[in-house]
Amino acid sequence: MKIAILGGTGNIGKGFALRWGQKHEIIIGSRDIDKAEAVAAEYNEVLETHGYKPVITGTDNRTAAEKAEIIVVAIRYNQLAPVMELIYPVISDKVVISVVVPMEKNSCYISPGSNYPRTPIESEEFNTEYFCFSIPEAGSAAQEIFTMIPESTELVAAFHTVPAKKLADLDMELDYDIGVCGNSMHSKELVFGLVRDISNMRPLDIGPLETAGMVESLTPLLINVAARNKMRDVSLKFI
């Protein structure tokens, strides 16, 4: 299959390209064509050193979406509207996978011995930062994207809990479960296959697109767990 990764020059995009580039044709999309081409060459070199013959190219986001059968939207939430407007004319009858998470960093002040956040009025109070899920008006980033695509385009939300660094490390097997949300079993089955293309990963059907907010909110949760418990790149496994 031809898979476009919009935001393919970022951390999570690199992991997708290296894992799926072993079996599929990958098109890296970016606002900067030169950067996309340079990164594509870098990914090809990495895969070649591991014994693969990859076909990874780089171009702008619209051209990448136009050439592909499956489009992975792996960009920041604040870039969503302009990118979706850009690719709208070329994504009819295709499958879009949203990896987008709307989240933000917050902070509060906690007094020693207190369970309650306070206003910073005493010197012994300290600041603690954490990430939280910033709920869009539509309920999730995926539901928002649904309002930005043609009727014939199928949308799936998935891969929100994959640690980017581990995904890009081809020496690691990822024994994780991946939640998949969507309204079409046709597109879900395609995504299940992409999950299984990554050794040891298991796809789980979470439900329709309306459940995507629950899955998206797991990303800031996992980041907070890792940061506050001195862990790295945590993910999920249902047992």
Which characteristics define this entry?
single chain; 239 residues; alpha/beta; Rossmann fold; eight-stranded mixed sheet; 9 helices; globular; NAD(P)-bd_dom_sf; cupric reductase (NADH) activity; STEAP_metalloreductase; P5C_Rdtase_cat_N
What summary fits the major beta sheet?
8 strands, mixed
CATH class: Alpha Beta
Question: Could you name the ranges where pLDDT drops below 50 across 5 or more consecutive residues?
Answer: none
Instruction: Provide the CATH superfamily.
Output: NAD(P)-binding Rossmann-like Domain
The chain-level mean pLDDT equals: 92
Principal-axes shape call: globular
Kindly describe this structure.
- Keywords: Oxidoreductase.
- The chain contains nine helices and eleven strands.
- The two termini are 32 Å apart.
- It has one domain: NAD(P)-binding Rossmann-like Domain (Rossmann fold, 3-Layer(aba) Sandwich), CATH 3.40.50.
- Strand 2, helix 2 and strand 3 form a beta-alpha-beta unit.
- The chain has 239 residues and is an alpha/beta fold.
- The strands form two sheets. An eight-stranded mixed beta sheet has the order 3-2-1-4-5-9-10-11. Strands 7-6-8 form a three-stranded antiparallel beta sheet.
